[in-house]
C-alpha cells in the first residue's frame, strides 16, 4: 500500500507564523495528487516533510499504515524529483542513476537491469555515457526522473520539475509524466503553481494558500464549483471575470441580476434573502459574442490576444476589464462595440462580503 495520510501536520519556523497550519489529507493508493498554490503557500515544505527532509513541528505522516515521523528519508520508500535536477556534474547519466542504488547496496547486475529499463522507458538509453553538461534541459529532467524510477519507490514526490523548461518541452514532459504514472501505477504527489499542469495531470487537486488547504477535489469539481473567489481566480486561465450583482426572487427562482441582465440559477430560493449582494464570476470561455441586444452587455474592444486557434477579446465594461475567449474566426478593432452574452449554467455566485461561493454556503 502506498496511500499517504497527513494528520494535523504543522510546520512553524517562528512564533508568530505557521508555514503549514494543521494540514490533514488522505491520498489514495496510486493516486496522482497535485498541490497547487502561489509561491510561499507551503506546498514544497509539505512535500519535503513527507519525504523526511524537513522536520515536523506537529502532526503525523503515514505511508500505508505506518507512521514515518521517525523513519529516515532513505527508508520511507519515496523518491523525490527536484526543480533544479540535482545531478552530479562529474558523473555520467548512468552513474547519476546508479548512485542511490549503490548507497542502498543493490547488486551491480540488478542496478544495470533497473537503469536499462528506466532509460528505455524515458528514451535516454543512448545518453547513458554522457555528462550533465552535454544534455539539454529536457534530457536532464528525464535523467532526474529516471534516477527516481530505479529506486522503485512506493511514492513519487515531484517539486515543480518542469519550471525550468521552455513551453514546448513543458507540454511534452507533462504528457510523459502522465504516461509514466499510468505505467508505474504508483502514488504521485506533484507540486506546481501552474494551473494548466494541475488540471492536466491531477486525479485530484489540493489548492493551498497561507499554509492551509482552500479546496480539494477533481479538476472538474474545482473548475465548476470553486469554493471561493481565490480558488476561482487561481484555477482560471485566462482570468475569470467578476462583476457586481444582486440576487432576486423571480417567480420563486433565484436570479442573478447584473445591471438589468438576468441569469437564472439553480440555487435554492433562500439564498436571495441570505446573500442579496453578490459577485458573479464568469470564465472567458463561458461568454459569447452575439447580435442580440436584449439581456446582453454592451462592451468595447480594448485589444485582442491571439492564442493558437483561439482569440482573447479584452473588452471594457463600466470602466473594468472583461475577457471573452472564442475561436479565432475574425478580427476585431480597438473601440469596436460588441454585445456579450453569458452561459447561465456556468455562472458562479460569490457572497460580496465573505467571497465564498453561495452554492457551497446554501
From TrEMBL:
A Pfam family matched in the record: ABC_tran
Listed GO biological process terms: carbohydrate transport
Key word Electron transport present: no
Secretion signal span: none
Domain ABC transporter: 4-235
Lineage top rank: taxon: Bacteria
UniProt entry tagged with the keyword Translocase: yes
GO cellular component: ATP-binding cassette (ABC) transporter complex, substrate-binding subunit-containing
PROSITE patterns from the UniProt entry: ABC_TRANSPORTER_1, ABC_TRANSPORTER_2
MF annotations from Gene Ontology: ABC-type transporter activity; ATP binding; ATP hydrolysis activity
Gene3D superfamilies in the record: 2.40.50.100, Nucleic acid-binding proteins, P-loop containing nucleotide triphosphate hydrolases
Record keywords: ATP-binding, Cell membrane, Membrane, Nucleotide-binding, Translocase, Transport
Protein name: ABC transporter ATP-binding protein
Gene that encodes the chain: msmX_2
Amino acid at each position: 500500500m502506498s496511500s499517504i495520510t497527513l494528520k494535523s501536520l504543522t510546520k512553524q519556523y517562528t512564533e508568530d507564523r505557521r508555514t503549514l497550519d494543521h494540514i490533514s489529507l488522505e491520498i489514495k493508493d496510486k493516486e496522482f495528487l497535485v498541490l497547487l498554490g502561489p509561491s510561499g503557500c507551503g506546498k514544497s515544505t509539505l512535500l519535503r516533510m513527507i519525504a523526511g527532509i524537513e522536520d515536523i513541528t506537529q502532526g503525523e505522516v503515514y505511508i500505508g499504515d505506518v507512521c514515518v515521523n521517525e523513519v529516515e528519508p532513505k527508508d520511507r520508500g519515496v523518491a523525490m524529483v527536484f526543480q533544479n535536477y540535482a545531478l552530479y556534474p562529474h558523473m555520467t547519466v548512468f552513474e547519476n542513476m546508479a548512485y542511490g542504488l549503490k548507497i542502498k547496496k543493490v547488486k551491480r547486475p540488478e542496478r544495470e537491469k533497473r537503469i536499462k529499463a528506466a532509460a528505455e522507458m524515458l528514451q535516454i538509453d543512448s545518453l547513458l555515457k554522457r555528462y550533465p553538461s552535454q544534455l539539454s534541459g529536457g534530457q536532464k529532467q528525464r535523467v532526474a526522473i529516471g534516477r527516481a524510477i530505479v529506486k522503485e519507490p512506493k511514492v513519487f514526490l515531484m517539486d515543480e520539475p518542469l519550471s525550468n523548461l521552455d513551453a514546448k518541452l513543458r507540454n511534452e514532459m507533462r504528457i510523459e509524466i502522465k504516461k509514466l504514472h499510468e505505467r508505474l501505477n504508483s502514488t504521485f504527489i506533484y507540486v506546481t503553481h501552474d494551473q494548466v499542469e494541475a488540471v492536466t495531470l491531477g486525479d485530484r487537486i489540493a489548492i493551498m494558500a497561507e499554509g492551509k488547504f482552500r479546496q480539494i477535489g477533481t479538476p472538474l469539481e474545482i473548475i465548476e464549483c470553486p469554493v471561493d473567489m481565490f480558488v476561482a481566480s487561481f484555477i482560471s486561465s485566462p482570468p475569470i471575470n467578476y462583476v457586481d450583482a444582486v440576487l432576486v426572487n423571480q417567480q420563486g427562482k433565484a436570479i442573478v441580476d447584473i445591471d438589468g441582465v438576468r441569469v437564472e440559477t439553480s440555487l435554492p430560493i433562500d439564498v436571495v434573502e441570505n446573500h442579496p449582494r453578490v459577485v458573479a464570476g464568469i470564465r472567458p470561455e463561458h461568454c459569447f459574442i452575439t447580435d442580440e441586444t436584449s439581456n446582453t452587455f454592451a462592451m468595447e474592444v480594448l485589444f485582442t490576444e491571439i492564442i493558437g486557434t483561439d482569440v482573447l477579446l479584452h473588452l471594457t465594461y463600466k470602466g473594468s476589464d472583461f475577457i471573452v475567449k472564442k475561436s479565432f474566426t475574425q478580427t476585431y478593432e480597438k473601440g469596436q462595440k460588441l454585445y456579450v452574452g453569458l452561459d447561465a449554467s456556468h455562472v458562479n455566485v460569490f457572497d460580496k462580503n465573505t467571497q465564498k461561493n453561495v452554492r457551497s454556503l446554501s
